[in-house]
Amino acid sequence: MYQEEITLGRFGGVIALFLLLVLLTQNVAAQELSTQKAERVDYASILSQLDISEMRQTMLGIWRQGLNPKSYWTERMEGYFVRGGNIEYNLRSLANQAYLQMLKDLYLGSVDPQSVGRDVKLIRKPFLTPKELMPMLLAAGRESRTFMESLAPKNAPYLSVREAFVKIYPACRDGVWQNITPLDKPLRLFMRHPAIELIKKRLSLLGYYFTTQDDLFDGDLLNAVSDVQWNLRIKPDGEISPNGKVWGFLNVSCNERLQQMQADMEKMRWFPQYFEKRYVFVNLAMSYFILVDKSYDEPRYISFRTVNGRVARKSPTMIDEVQKVIINPYWTVPPTIFSEDKVEDLKNLTKPEIIEYFTSHKYEVWDGGFRKRIDPTTINWLAISEGRITPDIHIRQLPHLGNALGVLKFDLTNSFSIYLHDTNQRELFNEPMRQLSSGCIRLERPLDLAEFLLEDTPWDRATIESVFARPGEVILKSTELPVPKSHQTAIYTAYLTSSLSSDGVVRFVDDLYGQNAAIKRYLRALF
C-alpha cells in the first residue's frame, strides 16, 4: 500500500508538471498570436475604420491645406459613390489608397527637398508607421477630418501661407479675381480711370484697406501700390507705370498665385510639424527675421530685416541652432569669396598695392592650419587665379568696426560656413532689394539677438556693448560666449514667396531663387 501511494504520488506529480507545461505552452502561443495580430496592423486596417462618406468630404476639402482634391478623390471614385450599391466593396480599397496618399503628401510633401536645388539642405523625413498612426486615429475618434488635421503641419510659417491660400482660393473659383488690362499711360495720385476701380478690388482681395471702391487714385491706393513696389524689391514711387512691375504683379493669374502658395506650403512640410517653444525663422525670400519665445506666460517676439544671399550665392534652406555668440569676430574669407573675389582683386596688383590692400582691409594670410602667418607679397595670386597653384592658405580679417561681420557673429552647427552676423554695411537694410550677401545672413538688430541668447548670464546688453571695438581700434582676440542650454534656440530658414502678414495683407515676392518652379515640376497635387 505504501509503495502504491508513493507511485501514485509520483505519477500525480508528473501529471501536474505536464498540465503546467501545457498551460505555459498555450500562454506562449496566445502571446505569439497576439503579437502576430499586432504586427499585422497595417495602413489598410487602420484606414478601414474610417467612414467612406467622411473620407470623401475630407479629400474634397483638402484644398484648405493647399492640395488639389482631384488628385485624391477621382471621378471614378465619385461615380462609385453616387451610384451607391456596395460602397465598401467598390470604394474601400480606392478610398484607403487615396486617403493614405493624401496624408503622406500633407505630412511630408510629395516633393523630395533634395531634388529642388543645392541650396536646400534638408533630407526628406519618414512617414509615420501604422503603429504610430493607430493612437492618432483613436485620439481623433475615428473621424476622418480630425485625423487628417492631426497630421497637418502646425508650424507658424506654414499656417501663415495656408491662411493666405484660404483667403485667395474662393476668389479664383467664383470669378471675383478678374483680369486687368494694362494701360498705355501711367496712373498717379488724384487721377481717375475705370481701371483704378478694378485695381482696388484686386488689392482688396489681398487685404489692403480702401475707404472707397471708386475710380480715384487716392491715398489708400498710393499706400497699397507703394507696399507692392517694396515687395517687388523696387524703390516705391506710388506710380503704376505702363509695362512696369506693378502691372506685371496685377496680371499674375489667380491660379498662378494658388500654385505659388502651394509651392511655399510644400517647403514648410519638409520641416518639423511643430516648432519648438523658442525658435528663429528667417524668410529668405522676404529677407525678414522673427524670433519667437513661448516659454513664458507672455510670448516674446523680435522681428527685423535681414540681408541674405544673392542668386549666385543663395542662402540655404536649413535647420540649425545657435552655438556661440562671438563679440568682435574674425572673418575668415569663405572659399567661394576667396577664389571668385579676393584672388581676382589681387592677381594683377604690384607688391606695394598688395601691401596696401591687406593693410587697409585689416587682412592677414595664414597657412591652412592657422599655425603660421604668411607675407601676402610672397604669394603668386595670378597663378592661383589661373589654376596653376592650389594653395592651402586662408585670408582672415582682424576684428574691427569695418570687419565684414561687424561686431557680432552667431555660430551655427552647419558644415557649409553659413552663420548669422552683424555687418559693416548697415545702409543696405533700408533697401527693398536685400538679397545681396554671399550666403550668410546679416541681421539688422544683432544686439537684440545677442541679448536674448545671453539672458540670465553676466553678459547683459550694456556689458556686450562695452566690449565692442571702438572707431580706429583693432581687436587682437575675439570674445566667444557659449549659449546657455536654457536659451539654445533652433534656427529655421526657408525661401517663402508668399505670406499672410499680421495686418491681414497677403504679400507676394518674386521667386529669384527658382525654388517654386522646381517644386511645381514634381508637386503631385498642383492646381
Question: Can you describe what's shown?
Answer:
This protein is an alpha+beta fold and 527 residues long. It folds into four domains: 2-39; 44-153, no CATH class; 180-252, PGBD-like superfamily/PGBD (Muramoyl-pentapeptide Carboxypeptidase, domain 1); 281-494, L,D-transpeptidase catalytic domain-like (Beta Barrel). It has 18 helices and 17 strands. The chain has helices spanning 2-39, 43-47, 52-60, 75-83, 87-107, 130-139, 144-151, 156-173, 194-205, 219-231, 245-250, 254-269, 335-346, 351-361, 381-385, 446-453, 461-467, 515-522, and strands spanning 278-283, 288-293, 300-309, 318-321, 324-327, 331-332, 363-367, 373-374, 393-397, 408-411, 420-421, 435-437, 441-443, 479-482, 490-494, 498-500, 506-508. Strands 1, 2, 3, 4, 5, 10, 11, 12, 13, 14 and 15 form an eleven-stranded mixed sheet that branches. A four-stranded antiparallel sheet has the order 6-9-7-8. A two-stranded antiparallel sheet has the order 16-17. α12 (254-269) packs across α18 (515-522). The protein is globular. The termini are far apart.
Q: Which outline best applies? A: globular
Low-confidence stretches: 1-11, 14-25, 28-39
Count of distinct structural domains: 4
Total strand segments = 17
The CATH topology annotation of the largest domain reads as L,D-transpeptidase catalytic domain-like
**Backbone CA Rg:** 32 Å
Brief descriptors of the model:
single chain; 527 residues; alpha+beta; Muramoyl-pentapeptide Carboxypeptidase, domain 1; 4 domains; 11-stranded mixed β-sheet; 4-stranded antiparallel β-sheet; globular; disordered N terminus
